[in-house]
Amino acid sequence: MAEPSPSMISLEEAQALVRSHVSPLETEIVPLLDAAGRVAAADLMSDMDVSPFAHAAMDGFALHVADIAQASPESPVDLDVIAEVPAGGAFEGTIEPGQCVRIMTGAALPSDADAVVKYEIVDYLGSNGMPGSRVRFTAPAKPRANIREAGEEAKQGEVVVRAGEVIKSAGVGFLAGCGVTEVPTYRAPRVAIISIGSELVPPTERPGIGHIRNSNGYALAACAREAGAVPTMLPIVPDDLDELTRMVKDACSKFDFVVTSGGASNGDFDFIKPVVETLGELYMTTVNMRPGKAQTFGVVDGTPVFGLPGNPAAAYMGFELIIRPALLAMQGYTQLERPHIQARLTADKKKKDPRRLLMRATITRGESGDLEVTPAANQSSGLFGVIQRSNCVAVIPEGVTQVHAGDEIECILLDVDEGVVL
Ligand SMILES: Nc1nc2c(c(=O)[nH]1)N[C@H]1C(S)=C(S)[C@@H](COP(=O)(O)OP(=O)(O)OC[C@H]3O[C@@H](n4cnc5c(N)ncnc54)[C@H](O)[C@@H]3O)O[C@H]1N2
Ligand code: MOO
């Protein structure tokens, strides 16, 4: 059995290495809606109290608590309705003892009212409860009942989103309410995706003998986009040293990060390692993981270049586990890892290869209530469909040769959707 080569580094070392060669990109100002899912690059402050005024939380009657303090079913209190305030309106007058104001949810509270009683518990005494009528109260109200106070959401000048926070959908609404309509954030990295291989044709073509469609380029571009980056798929490059050298050099002058797939191993036509070594610094060639041993990383003219292996699952794992965290760091994120959870294996599994095994797998909640994980039957690194139909990667560490049904193992949730039971 082949031993890992001395230059082979662990997945964590590979992640740290790539991470050490990237930093957050410069900041840019984006319209508020475009800030969803992105990292605030500065503290964001509210330009006013939110809400700016105390207002009714219920449709009902604004009044003085003191007026109905003694109200009960046996000794009800009747008040004169002197005005109606809709949302967007304002009552400028004074509520005298014995009076109340009909008020709608969201309407500004009359300045001298100190509670709102919802209309369901008010007796209209046969009238319509509109101004000019009398309405009956049979219970006291608590001071400030059904009132949303001014400044409850934010105070003027308060930092409402801190630098470094990821702005969620609710945060976009929060910021809108606070008058923040433009947000400083880190620029999204422009990522070049280069698919290497003389056998490759675009997916629009029907491949002839010996040829296949370029599926890696599409998956990697989708992964990059999902990571918040802006991918550009460059033309397919054949297994040709000069052509690849030209393409990588050119891409390094135009993009923030260059990703290639294929030609990363030691075959006669595998050229990404010599290209990176010739053009710049080569820092990594192999990682102790399966699939995905052949992972090349270096820097050319200041631009990180990552050569993923050609096998689809190997390329995908390299992107998701090593490139993705770096792209996130370039956008200012500090949470760089996918969620990890423990689940019980549903079957025994033998492992011949000493590398860390990343099994495409599916987590479900078993009848006992425990999370259970079932590796896909076909673990070939040539398949994308298996990843499409899986919801996690189940990990068997380096060196471990066997795991058993019922063992708890670490699972990395990839691209999770609402269907995943946690
Ligand atoms: N003697 C050895 N041969 C191989 C080893 C090894 O250790 N010793 N490792 C195998 C493993 S594991 C992998 S992974 C591959 C990695 O090699 P390359 O990065 O050079 O990949 P290629 O040879 O270019 O391609 C491998 C495979 O993937 C297909 N491919 C490539 N690009 C695409 C694409 N854009 N879309 C879809 N499929 C693609 C390609 O046609 C090959 O079938 O090396 C093994 N060999
Ligand atoms: O990189 Mo290969 O499995 O390790 O597909």
Automatic annotation (TrEMBL):
One of its GO terms (molecular function) is molybdopterin molybdotransferase activity. Pathway: Cofactor biosynthesis; molybdopterin biosynthesis. CDD domains: MoeA. It comes from the Bacteria. Catalyzes the insertion of molybdate into adenylated molybdopterin with the concomitant release of AMP. Keywords: Magnesium, Metal-binding, Molybdenum, Molybdenum cofactor biosynthesis, Transferase. Residues 192-329 form the MoaB/Mog domain. Its cofactor is Mg(2+). Belongs to the MoeA family. Pfam families: MoCF_biosynth, MoeA_C, MoeA_N. GO terms for biological process: Mo-molybdopterin cofactor biosynthetic process. InterPro entries: MoaB/Mog-like_dom_sf, MoaB/Mog_dom, MoeA-like, MoeA_C_domain_IV, MoeA_C_domain_IV_sf, MoeA_linker/N, MoeA_linker/N_sf. It comes from Slackia equolifaciens. SMART domains: MoCF_biosynth. Its EC number is 2.10.1.1. This is Molybdopterin molybdenumtransferase. GO terms for cellular component: cytosol. It catalyses: adenylyl-molybdopterin + molybdate = Mo-molybdopterin + AMP + H(+).
